[in-house]
Design brief:
This protein is an alpha/beta fold. It is built from nine helices and eight strands. The protein has one domain: Aldolase class I (TIM Barrel), CATH 3.20.20. Strands 1-2-3-4-5-6-7-8 form an eight-stranded parallel beta barrel, surrounded by eight helices.
Length: 206
């Protein structure tokens, strides 16, 4: 599962409505999303726990892994398949010691190939670069050039995920440059028909 990361990577928005979040994630998976990252910067711990548990059940019904953003303890508590770590989070090595050997650990490397080298050495499952395009979720994020994907694919033995302002129109550039997966929030979960939006992204990988 972990080594085969490829395709649409659905990253949840800050959604406090449990039912809508569940329905939207189910629609994204029905449209072909290959994995889901639960990310909610607004919810309190109780809400995050409740939502994560619900999403784990939905992901398992579709045979897709659930990744928890920035919270190893929550991933451990609910039995999620993995975590995604940023530069301010617990180290990859420390997280790897806590989780099952097969757990997925993703690392945000922003626009830094050296960070990706270090993440690979520390035991990451995949690395993520971005922002490649202007993002409403992280408007101040540093820009990552397309050539970074090409360099990473030549040098690293890990799947490479692209993130940041990705739409159906610009995703092909990232895939052509070497992205194994595209992580999408707004262009997926703000779509009028989430399932159809997911299907359009997924077809880019076939």
């Amino acid at each position: 599962m972990s080594r085969g990361i490829r395709g649409l990577y659905a990253v949840t928005p800050d959604q406090l409505d449990d039912a809508k979040l569940a329905a939207d994630v189910d629609a994204a998976l029905a449209g072909g999303a290959k994995l889901v990252q639960y990310r909610n910067k607004l919810a309190d711990p109780a809400v995050r726990r409740r939502q994560a548990k619900a999403l784990l059940a939905i992901c398992r019904s579709h045979g897709a892994p659930l990744i928890i953003n920035d919270d190893t303890e929550l991933a451990l508590e609910i039995g999620a398949e993995g975590v995604h770590l940023g530069s301010e989070d617990e180290s990859i090595a420390a997280t790897r010691r806590k989780l099952q050997p097969q757990a997925i650990i993703g690392a945000s490397c922003y626009s830094l190939l050296e960070s990706a080298r270090q993440a690979q050495q520390a035991g990451a499952t995949y690395v993520a670069f971005g922002s490649f395009f202007p993002s409403s979720v992280k408007p101040g994020a540093a820009h990552a050039p397309l050539t970074l994907l090409q360099e990473a694919k030549k040098e690293l033995a890990l799947p490479v995920v692209a993130i940041g302002g990705i739409t159906h129109a610009n995703a092909p550039q990232l895939i052509a440059a070497g992205a194994d997966s595209v992580a999408v929030i707004s262009a997926l979960f703000s779509a009028k028909d989430i399932r159809t939006a997911a299907l359009h992204f997924s077809k880019l990988f076939t």
